[in-house]
Design a protein that fits this description.
The structure is a single chain. The chain is an alpha/beta fold and about 280 residues long. The protein contains ten helices and ten strands. Helix 1 links the parallel strand 3 and strand 4. The longest helix is centred in the middle third of the chain and has 15 residues.
Length: about 280
């Protein structure tokens, strides 16, 4: 088990903090998610990322409640799905998520996609603001938002998301988006940090991993952590779950970072935000 205190936290605009390594459960069924989250918490994770759309909030909640770890030491994120955007719909969707999780609050509630064609994300953001004011969502943010979406939220509501969770890995480092985040104090969170497993065969990453005596997955997690990015590796294999959080024992050099930068292609492994409605 990794000592949870060895995992750094990243400060949030609202005064809170988020553990820099979280456990993702996308495409994991409810029963498997319960088992995987139990394993993750036992391995030292204190941050779990789920979503309404994943269909596994109940399993995640069971694992959290049965973990024996005090609730205040765990950070739980979930998200509202596109079909439930809009002020009233979002509030109802949040109630459903909370019921499935079996919790009285979530630590971070996100808009899953802007779904800009539907033009409801600003009203949805206002609903998240209400949940924040009520204390049922300790922090609020977004996922898969691009600069125009973020700018519109701030212009029309005056409230800056504390987090934007986006696809991020060496093929898609999201440089310009991260620069914009920095101007507003938004924390970048990375989903698909391993490129859905496709990056593990990159020779550059294999050489770096061999030099440090670690796995390519550990290199990719460490790459994000060293840049102040919250990273969400996913696995249902206990040995890999434990391995992915165990990255405190090495540091990537400037040469390592420069070599990884050469891998940028702009390729995505998931959907472009403009294609999701």
């Amino acid at each position: 088990m990794v000592d949870p205190t060895a995992v750094p936290s990243v400060a949030l605009l609202d005064g809170g903090a988020i553990p820099s390594i979280g456990f993702g459960v996308y495409k994991v069924d409810d029963e498997s998610a319960e088992t995987a989250v139990q394993t993750a918490i036992a391995s030292g994770y204190r941050h779990v990322d789920t979503a309404e759309m994943y269909g596994n909030e109940a399993g995640v909640g069971r694992a959290v409640r049965a973990s024996g770890v005090p609730r205040d030491e765990l950070f739980v994120t979930t998200k509202v799905w596109n079909t439930h955007q809009g002020q009233d719909e979002t509030l109802r969707a949040f109630d459903g998520s909370l019921d499935r999780l079996g919790l009285d609050r979530v630590d971070l509630y996100l808009i899953h996609w802007p779904a800009a064609a539907n033009d409801r994300y600003v009203d949805t953001w206002r609903a998240l603001g209400r949940l924040y004011e009520e204390g049922r969502a300790t922090s609020i943010g977004v996922s898969n938002f691009q600069v125009p979406h973020l700018q519109r939220l701030v212009d029309e509501t005056g409230v800056v998301p504390v987090v934007n969770q986006v696809e991020r890995h060496p093929w898609l480092p999201q440089r310009s988006l991260m620069e914009f985040h920095a101007t507003l104090g938004i924390v970048t969170s990375a989903w698909s940090p391993l490129g859905r497993g496709r990056l593990v065969a990159e020779p550059v990453l294999e050489r770096i991993a061999h030099r440090h005596g670690v796995s390519v997955a550990q290199v990719l997690v460490r790459w994000n952590v060293q840049q102040g990015v919250v990273v969400l590796p996913k696995s249902v294999t206990p040995s890999r779950i434990a391995e992915n959080i165990d990255v405190a024992g090495f540091e990537l050099s400037v040469d390592d970072i420069d070599a990884i930068a050469e891998l940028e292609t702009g390729d995505r492994t998931g959907s472009h935000p403009d294609e999701v409605s």
